[in-house]
Amino acid sequence: MSITDGIRQTELGKARAAASPARPRLYHQSQFRLPQLPAHIQPLIDQSALETSRYNREFTEIRMIGKGGYGKVYKAMHRLDGEAYAIKKIMINVARLQRIEAKGEDEVDNLLGEVRALAKLDHPNIVRYHSGWLEFSPLAHNEPSVLTLHLQMAIYPFNLAKYLSPSQSSTPTTPCSPSEIMDMPHPPIRHCFHTASSLHIMLAILDGVQYIHSRGIVHRDIKPGNIFLCIREEPALGRVPMFRIGDFGLASFLAQPEGQTPVSSEVSQAVARLTRKRRVPLSPVGTEPYCAPWNPSSSGKVSAKLDVYSLGIVLCELLCQFGTSTERSITLSTLKSGKLPQGFEDMIENGLGLTHEQAPSGLGRKIGDLILGMIHTNEDDRASCEDVRRTVNAILERIAKMN
């Protein structure tokens, strides 16, 4: 039986009349059997999961920790090892399965793009991926089970957005577990906004970005909300935040110059399969204000400099302490027009902790020029990751000599 026949049979009578046109139709477990699903997706579904959910069998759901157009992310405790994980649930609706039946393997590759991209990555500045599977699972309690893609990932206490946000909460004096930190309304440590500290954070994030580029992947949605933190206890330094890039839902294949072999052929070939049918849309991809403006000269190719633009906006946030969300929004909007925040150079000089005799150092202007170079609207004139690394290291060397 084809997928179309299955849909017709299950949507007759009252069920069809009651269906809401505004909500994507989903494959309910009670309505569909495995043979009615597209042939290309059948082997990917655990047969035993049709009777008992792997998610319910192996995990105890604690609470939802995030949601978006892709689906929802839950904090869940693994029943066997007792550890908490982030489980991302991506619901597969009828329209998606129709595309799978029509396009076959290519559409399955698009569906599993994030899973397969994460599975190829192993780096201290990238979110750790554990497992992925397809099964029928309820969207929420007391709702029918629908076909859902699950991604099991390491869980991190909070993200860079929270680390940068203002708060009046006090800092706990006793060590906290990652689960305890995540359940707090505010993280136990916060960014100091010192110039040197901000630049070191940028280098850590840049390490992760350059790594995924070397593996043939462009993230396309770098932002504070997708940069996660865990806290490591260092004997000499105390609590040290570690930064990891996550959420590869918009990741795409890095275009290679004609005739050039990718750095990592095995990984790049896999990612190329996932994205060979994709084209760069005629509008920015990602999240405002971090997404770069569309570049008409890109010829449909995905460039690593898309991520550099996002990093430029993030660097400004690392350096500028905002009192309100409105102030942040106005400042970043002004920055996207090519103008630095008012008093930016003086703020950088003050953040260096220099004596009156040492100031001005000229580093405020140099850092300002770096940010503007990272967010240049012309992709050809925009700084590369290596340009950013070279400039940041040179600035840090000067700061070290001053102190």
UniProtKB/TrEMBL annotation:
Classification lineage: Eukaryota, Fungi, Dikarya, Ascomycota, Pezizomycotina
Residues binding ATP, per UniProt: 89
A molecular-function term among this protein's GO annotations: eukaryotic translation initiation factor 2alpha kinase activity
Entry protein name: Kinase-like protein
Keywords recorded for this protein, A-Z: ATP-binding, Kinase, Nucleotide-binding, Serine/threonine-protein kinase, Transferase
Highest taxon of the lineage: Eukaryota
Region feature Disordered, mapped onto this chain: 1-20
Sequence similarity: Belongs to the protein kinase superfamily. Ser/Thr protein kinase family. GCN2 subfamily.
Domain Protein kinase residues, every copy: 59-396
Signal peptide: none
Keyword Kinase in record: yes
Organism: Aulographum hederae CBS 113979
Keyword DNA-binding: no
